[in-house]
């Protein structure tokens, strides 16, 4: 296999925090020893509950925040401790689409000014070339030249996110980190943005690190899926393997949380233990998931599991991964996630039915 575009080894990020009445600073272990790689042209999805460390990992990868430990290699170059000056040319090759299009765009700039800014910062092109590049990108994301001189307050959420995607693509990047790019949008337009991202990946040969919590979107977008819990990877597998045969209890519970087509249908598996979700500031000993896991044994409470192979391309951090009951996927489980999945299917069908 060729060298990955992005390789992360033992990535750690700890934050210090102090409450109002606390004398000492607590350590929040937001990301705690995460390793993965992303091949050129693929989409790796990072999933997990809020607070699992997904967005922190994304920002660490792009050096928007500094890692406490670990290594980040991009295009074969170790960028973990690279200076901002040496990072500057690499910034063109790695870009980000932020979650909230309302907060990530400057309301004082027109769309044209917003899109030209990366070109100006990196000294690319003259005024005519920058104008042509803006018009080209607006067309690629489904907007017209008449949108260029408007301010972002005049746009809908979906249109703003299209502007955010266009801005991320202005410098022709290889890697695009998408931090929950549709979660802030109305469900009626989420499918359009997801399909746009897939179309752009095919046209431009993009590589995505895709952060999400909606498993219907992940099933539609990802080639491989990495599941995070309290700063750790607990499972990493090809998309079809993970959705058809998840090997970690937490992954199974995420899939069980997808709304079922028959609301009165009883749960298929042993329910989660009644316990509060953990916190990166107060981690349990042993397996971090054991207070909520219905399959936990004494070993889980005292010994932290390491990622270990559980199938072709599938690694799992669970002492009992070979002892869990057989998994029976719910019929149409990935499509059972309400309106989002329905929109994905309908939009894809309409797109495929278009002439030419």
From TrEMBL:
<dbReference type="GO" id="GO:0005524">
    <property type="term" value="F:ATP binding"/>
</dbReference>
<keyword id="KW-0547">Nucleotide-binding</keyword>
<dbReference type="InterPro" id="IPR003593">
    <property type="entry name" value="AAA+_ATPase"/>
</dbReference>
<dbReference type="GO" id="GO:0015833">
    <property type="term" value="P:peptide transport"/>
</dbReference>
<keyword id="KW-0067">ATP-binding</keyword>
<dbReference type="GO" id="GO:0016887">
    <property type="term" value="F:ATP hydrolysis activity"/>
</dbReference>
<keyword id="KW-0472">Membrane</keyword>
<dbReference type="InterPro" id="IPR017871">
    <property type="entry name" value="ABC_transporter-like_CS"/>
</dbReference>
<keyword id="KW-0813">Transport</keyword>
<dbReference type="InterPro" id="IPR013563">
    <property type="entry name" value="Oligopep_ABC_C"/>
</dbReference>
<dbReference type="InterPro" id="IPR027417">
    <property type="entry name" value="P-loop_NTPase"/>
</dbReference>
<comment type="similarity">
    <text>Belongs to the ABC transporter superfamily.</text>
</comment>
<dbReference type="InterPro" id="IPR003439">
    <property type="entry name" value="ABC_transporter-like_ATP-bd"/>
</dbReference>
<dbReference type="GO" id="GO:0055085">
    <property type="term" value="P:transmembrane transport"/>
</dbReference>
<feature type="domain" description="ABC transporter">
    <location>
        <begin position="6"/>
        <end position="255"/>
    </location>
</feature>
<keyword id="KW-1003">Cell membrane</keyword>
<protein>
    <submittedName>
        <fullName>ABC transporter ATP-binding protein</fullName>
    </submittedName>
</protein>
<dbReference type="Pfam" id="PF08352">
    <property type="entry name" value="oligo_HPY"/>
</dbReference>
<dbReference type="InterPro" id="IPR050319">
    <property type="entry name" value="ABC_transp_ATP-bind"/>
</dbReference>
<dbReference type="Pfam" id="PF00005">
    <property type="entry name" value="ABC_tran"/>
</dbReference>
């Amino acid at each position: 296999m060729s060298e990955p575009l992005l390789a992360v080894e033992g990535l750690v990020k700890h934050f210090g925090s102090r409450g109002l009445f606390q004398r000492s600073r607590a350590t929040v272990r937001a990301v705690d020893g995460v390793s993965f790689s992303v091949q050129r042209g693929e989409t790796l999805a990072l999933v997990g509950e809020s607070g699992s460390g997904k967005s922190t990992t994304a920002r660490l990868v792009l050096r928007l925040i500094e890692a406490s430990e670990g290594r980040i290699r991009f295009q074969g170059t170790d960028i973990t401790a690279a200076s901002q000056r040496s990072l500057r040319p690499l910034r063109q090759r790695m870009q980000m689409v932020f979650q909230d299009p309302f907060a990530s765009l400057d309301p004082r700039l027109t769309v044209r000014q917003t899109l030209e800014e990366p070109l100006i910062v990196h000294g690319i092109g003259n005024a005519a070339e920058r104008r042509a590049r803006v018009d080209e990108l607006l067309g690629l994301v489904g907007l017209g030249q008449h949108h260029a001189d408007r301010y972002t307050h005049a746009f809908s959420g979906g249109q703003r996110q299209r502007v955010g995607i266009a801005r991320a693509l202005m410098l022709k990047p290889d890697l695009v980190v998408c931090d929950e790019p549709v979660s802030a949008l109305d469900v009626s337009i989420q499918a359009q943005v997801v399909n746009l991202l897939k179309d752009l990946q095919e046209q431009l040969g993009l590589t995505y690190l895709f952060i999400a919590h909606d498993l219907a979107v992940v099933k539609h977008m990802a080639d491989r899926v990495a599941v995070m819990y309290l700063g750790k990877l607990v499972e990493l597998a090809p998309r079809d393997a993970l959705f058809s045969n998840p090997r970690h209890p937490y992954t199974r519970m995420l899939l069980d949380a997808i709304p079922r087509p028959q609301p009165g249908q009883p749960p298929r598996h042993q329910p989660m233990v009644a316990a509060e979700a953990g916190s990166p500031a107060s981690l349990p000993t042993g397996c971090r998931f054991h207070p909520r896991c219905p399959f936990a044994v004494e070993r889980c409470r005292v010994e932290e599991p390491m990622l270990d192979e559980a199938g072709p391309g599938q690694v799992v951090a669970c002492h009992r991964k070979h002892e869990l009951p057989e998994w029976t996927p719910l019929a149409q489980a990935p499509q059972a996630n309400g309106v989002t999945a329905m929109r994905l299917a309908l939009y894809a069908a309409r797109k495929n039915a278009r002439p030419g």
